[in-house]
Amino acid sequence: RAAVGVGDRPRLVARRVVVRYGRVPAVREVSVELAPGAVVALMGRNGSGKSSLLWALQGSGPRQGGTVSVDGTDPAKVSAAEARALVGLVPQTPGDLLYLETVAEECEQADRESEVPEGTCRRLLDRLTPGIRPERHPRDLSEGQRLSLVLAVQLTAAPAVVLLDEPTRGLDYHAKASFGDLVRELASEGRAVLLATHDVEFVAGVSDRVVVLAEGEIVADGPTADVVVASPAFAPQVAKVLSPQPWLTVSEVRDALAGAEARV
Ligand SMILES: Nc1ncnc2c1ncn2[C@@H]1O[C@H](COP(=O)(O)OP(=O)(O)OP(=O)(O)O)[C@@H](O)[C@H]1O
Ligand SMILES: [Mg+2]
């Protein structure tokens, strides 16, 4: 895991964020800070407010109260182009962000909008999922390919903060593992990553911190091991079986056993 320096200033600071749809509150005075180099998982039951919070942090969703600051700027108060360079969001249904006829057009538009050299988005896409033919229609891509395309489009703007809404849905084992590596890499480049997910095994493998929402409020916030072990609903299988040992993943158990062998 990337060690986050104690002195590093958070890249995103949200204070007492409120989101309401009509009279129904979905997010109730939530405060979070996202540090550079850290991956934070946002967990909680269906309807607990995860997506609403992500859209409010990104700036294009409703926000009836509170403040959001990304490196000093409120992404809701700047142009779409400026906001994209501050925060990238991959939505729960990534296809919602794709509306052009081909993969090539989506990539070219992303380069133009972010004013980066031609081919930037395509190179990002090839790193995520190599070989998607440029003339393909985004609608016809597999779920994993579409996720990669939207992520490449979002990363073209090199945002300081990356928000991911249930990014592992529909990914096979290998795609999920390489996606996990990519998430760690985004963090190691100094970005702050917040990902909403129900995937406890994925959380155990990639996230430094876990924030749990219930009915729009934060009910837990701490290091991954502390939060998931304390809450049976979010504990990965390894933790359930080996509790009270503080292990979350098979590789942690393997490392611990190797360490024990080395000592005898
Ligand atoms: N556009 C909307 N209009 C009205 N109510 C909404 C809207 N979007 C979300 N809600 C409500 O706000 C609450 C929080 O929803 P939200 O989608 O943020 O939860 P979530 O944690 O992302 O859920 P899931 O795990 O199912 O994705 C729910 O009660 C939901 O019904
Ligand atoms: Mg959601």
Entry summary:
With 264 residues, the chain is of the alpha/beta class. 38% of the residues lie in helices and 22% in strands.
Describe this structure in words.
The protein is an alpha/beta fold. It has one domain: 3-Layer(aba) Sandwich (Rossmann fold), CATH 3.40.50. Helix content is 38%, strand content 22%. It has helices at 50-58, 80-86, 103-114, 120-128, 143-155, 173-188, 200-206, 224-230, 237-242, 250-263; strands spanning 12-21, 24-34, 39-43, 65-70, 87-90, 161-165, 192-196, 209-214, 217-223. The strands form 2 sheets. It has a 6-stranded mixed beta sheet, with helices on both faces. Strands 2-1-4 form a 3-stranded antiparallel beta sheet, with helices on one face. α3 packs parallel to α5 and α4 (120-128) runs antiparallel to α5. The longest helix has 16 residues, at 173-188. It is globular, with a radius of gyration of 19 Å. Magnesium ion (MG) binds at residues 50-51, 92, 165, 196.
